[in-house]
């Protein structure tokens, strides 16, 4: 199930539902039983589930930190640093999800570029990927 959640959070699915249905409301589309492409490979979904687990662990850590804000551990405690590390870790996992998805779909360089062009044009979060898109594509395609 965690692999399915990673799939549904991928940039590919966001691009797909915006391109096909002109909406970013995935939940509404699911309730309407609209066609959302789903991978059939169990091993691929298991691979994606690792990234979901990592994101959940990061979220749990932030919740723990937020609860401790009433009594910070010491004067050196820097909540901004905690949130910055959290965001960096989540971005890295989302990047890994997208790389795995594009590899699985066997997307070409131009197809990946088009996905991020659309996402950027719609002003959606792309986890900073479009700022280093060439590097992302090179890493994804093994160039």
Q: How would you portray this structure in words?
A:
With 143 residues, this protein is an all-alpha fold. The protein has one domain. The chain has seven helices and no strands. Helix 1 packs across helix 4, helix 5 packs across helix 7 and helix 6 runs antiparallel to helix 7.
Percent of residues in helices: 55-70%
Proportion of beta-strand residues:
under 5%
Domain count: the total is 1
Give the end-to-end Cα distance, rounded to a whole number of Å: 32 Å
Q: Which sheet architecture does the biggest sheet show?
A: none
Tell me the quaternary state: single chain
Which structural category do the helix and sheet elements fall into?
A: mainly alpha
Short description:
This protein has 7 helices and no strands. With about 140 residues, it is an all-alpha fold.
Secondary structure elements and pairings:
Blueprint: H1 2-8, H2 11-21, H3 26-31, H4 42-67, H5 79-105, H6 109-121, H7 133-141
